[in-house]
Design goal:
Low-confidence stretches: none
Helix content: under 10%
Shape: globular
Number of helices: 0
Radius of gyration: 13 Å
Number of strands: 11
Order of helices and strands: EEEEEEEEEEE
């Protein structure tokens, strides 16, 4: 069973940056596509970005295009979401998820989420 753990969330001022990490304990992330999602209070979960098992960015949501970048370091079993130019609308719980299939096929494994709050 693949277990994912997100980290790097916190409180940041508008215009600031954060880098989220999605790591596994034990099993390798190699061979998995990893997606990043977020859910704000009262809103539906939103897919943000997805990186293939080969390291290709397969999807970036319009809402974060040009501001968020996904990357992976399989040697460290970690996928990153670099977030810049953050605004209050980015406040949400951020999740990573993994699939052995392609990004658009759905995700079998999910992390517990990390809170990002953008506020002055």
């Amino acid at each position: 069973q693949l277990q994912l753990v997100e980290s790097g969330g916190g409180l940041v001022q508008p215009g600031g940056s954060l880098r989220l990490s999605c790591a596994t304990s034990g099993l390798s992330l190699g061979g998995y596509a990893i997606g990043w999602f977020r859910q704000a209070p009262g809103k539906e979960r939103e897919g943000l970005s997805c990186i293939s098992s080969m390291g290709e960015t397969m999807y970036v949501a319009d809402s974060v295009k040009g501001r968020f970048t996904v990357s992976r370091d399989d040697a460290k079993n970690t996928v990153y979401l670099q977030m810049t130019s953050l605004g209050p609308e980015d406040t949400a719980v951020y999740y990573c998820a993994a699939t052995r299939a392609a990004c658009h096929m759905g995700f079998a494994f999910w992390g517990q989420g990390t809170q990002v709050t953008v506020s002055s």
